[in-house]
Amino acid sequence: MKKVTMFVWNHFTNDARVMREGVTLSAHGYDVNLIAIENKKDPRAKAFEVVNDHFRVHRVPMYPWLLELYQNNKKEFVISVAGITAIVAPALFYKSWILMSTYFVFLATAYGAVKHNGTRRNLIKLARSTKMIIKGYRQNADIYHAHDLNTLTQGVICSKARFRQKKLVYDSHEVQTDRTGYNPKMIARWEGALLPFVDETIVENHTRAKKHESLYGYYPHTLYNYSELFDIEERPKADLHNTLDLPKEEKILLYQGGVQPGRGLELLVQAMPMIQEGTLVFLGDGRQKPELETMVAEMGLTDRIKFLPKVHLSELPSYTSNAYLGFQVLQNINYNHYSASSNKLFEYMMAHVPVISCDFPEIRSVVEGEQVGLSIDASEPSAIADAVNRMVEDEAMRKTFSDNCKKAKYKYNWDIEKDKLLQVYKEL
Predict the structure, then answer these.
(1) N or C: which end of the chain has fewer CB within 10 A?
(2) What is the pLDDT of residue 183?
């Protein structure tokens, strides 16, 4: 049985794509170990987890233990170090004022670096990456699989820095050179420097594959982020109407996923006064959530817009099935968004929920090609509101979209797409 070590730069609690890949490989003759990041505040992100007999998750500490001690008790930590130093330094360096001065300068510099947010973040990343490399190297896998650029360095070192080199798969879920918060030139140099060590490259769709080819001169494999195939009628249904104290006949207008900037979520809020019927529900968490909650309160829309925390990916369909329609209104703030073929679209489809989506190429081709919703210019709240009102007013159209979802899900599902992943591994 071939051994596979995967790397992800997250806690691996809601990463549906990586979960599907790991489960698929473990069911087809591969023994999979996945290295992720521990989160002591989340019981689901513990240091070790068994997914099945041939799929295990190992999580490295989120912070170096000294830094974690400093962050939890800054004042006590500084007092303790100062006290110990006052005793230890004279004992060690009493014969040399130069050594003692150097020691104190070193401590002061280290403390200053820890206090500086940027330096602290980089130290944390370096320590975390090092622990991933050590754990991954010791596993001595036949194949290493790096998910996204922030684990590719770990993959290269573990697979190639050894006497008998191992195979390396680079599985890029994003367009690394053009996404929010990333320096395009620096990322292109970093990614370009590591790619010669990669044996097989995977990207999410053909639009992104063409972009990759234009940057690096070769066309990678594609692996779409489709939902697993299931019958939504056989899944238990979470009663969102009861949870949110809504009338049974109230139409739930659902957004599920990360509550992050660039996803058009503030436009959904702005559209609600123009939407004739329905309650907007945000199901998920993220850094934009407090901003949206404030916005909703200031606009006096708390009776029409509700917020729910994220749920585990295994429970998500039970919530999705409550929706009258679902939103996928990404904004064109970078090529990464423009080229997306988001799993959210396919999660709605699997639950027979029609979608109102942006008109970016990969998403539009599915929505319009399969007639499962309305594809619009989602940059204006009025356009979003018009689309919702059209679907709410025309129940026959909405039913047609839902029926088309029931057919399209047999085309866009992981049960078919996973064969492409297995073929990549077969070629290795």
Answers:
(1) N
(2) 87
